[in-house]
Design goal:
It is a single chain. By secondary structure, the protein is of the alpha+beta class. The chain is 28% helix and 14% strand. The protein has 2 helices and 3 strands. A 3-stranded antiparallel sheet has the order 1-2-3. The chain is elongated, with a radius of gyration of 24 Å. The protein starts with 37 loop residues before the first helix and ends in an 11-residue tail after the last helix. The model has no long low-confidence stretch (mean pLDDT 76).
């Protein structure tokens, strides 16, 4: 087995090229501390309580809303959007699409 002296070089993007917020020649950017997404998190909690057929999540890193369908589908039903209003619209589209493709239930005859 070959031992590399500096294995981290394999993962570098480019030699001498700095990427990101702290690049050379750029002013320092103050990062807001605390909870900047409180309104979005509260919107996700509210949507989760309003929609019993869905689990609503908010990703603070991605700053996106996610909805997971709780009813049985052939494939997992996951919808994502940038805002809560867009998420509601996408959820309704997903529900309409699923209802169109769902198989009709067979009627069960009552016991005599």
């Amino acid at each position: 087995m070959v031992q590399l002296r500096r294995p981290w070089r394999l993962f570098r993007r480019g030699r001498g090229k700095r990427v990101g917020r702290h690049a050379l020649g750029q002013p320092y950017v103050e990062v807001e501390r605390g909870e900047p997404d409180l309104a979005d998190r509260a919107a996700a909690v509210l949507l989760d309580r309003m929609e019993p057929a869905w689990t609503i999540l908010y990703g603070p890193w991605s700053r996106r809303f996610y909805a997971l369908g709780l009813y049985p589908t052939p494939e997992p039903l996951v919808v994502e959007a940038r805002t809560a209003q867009e998420l509601l619209t996408e959820m309704r589209h997903a529900e309409q699409g699923w209802v169109r493709h769902a198989r009709p239930h067979t009627a069960v005859a009552p016991a005599a």
